[in-house]
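Reviewer 2 asked us to include a model.

Predict the structure of this chain.
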Amino acid sequence: MRRNIVIAAVTAAALIGGGTATALATTGDDDRGTAPRADVSVSDDGGVRDEADGQGDDAAGERDDRDDADRVSSAKVTAAEAIAAALRETPGTAVSADLDAADDDGDDRRERAAWEVDVLAGDGTWHSVRIDPGTGKVLGSHRDGDEDDTAEVRAALKGTSVDAADAARAAAGKGAVTSVDLDDDGDDDGDGRAAWEVETRTDGKGEQDWRVDPGTGKVTADRSDSDDSGSDDSGSDDD
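Predicted model (structure tokens):
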């Protein structure tokens, strides 16, 4: 009877006061003591709040960082090698290459981690080619929808001597290359000039962004990245 009275009182306080009431579990009579407090409380809207919710977000972020590091360290095929393999499958101009994590969308072709290389073919069609980062084999390819920026991409690369693979090799001295992408109008950097954007990852520094000049191959820190804005790594790497 005493236990029922205590529980009823706590429940009434939560409903009438509109505030947060902590639920306590009792074992019965006073001489038997009370059970330890549970880390659960009743919120204003009647829901149950777990006191450890905030810790879950931090743990998820740490897991993502570890997953990224594992993905990079397990890739035996470099970005330049993946691009070369993709172009053997689909001749044309490689415009981007990204080391993608495993996909859980249920499509068997995309469940494993892979390099995904976007290729602009000579006839103006776009193709996406997936390359195994462990063996360099083609996992699959498909034609993408028509891109509106085909003319801009061709204009940006006209007369240049540095392609996506060259850009990846140039930036490899900064760390393990995880992506290469063409910035065809320079909007991201604000200088209006086309450039290859390359992302690298190194132990202790995490991810870093670089820009590679498509005419000279010079590597500079991406000024649009606040973490690298003060970096003095502006020299090019000779391969």
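The longest strand covers residues 93-100. The radius of gyration is 27 Å. We have added this to the supplementary material.
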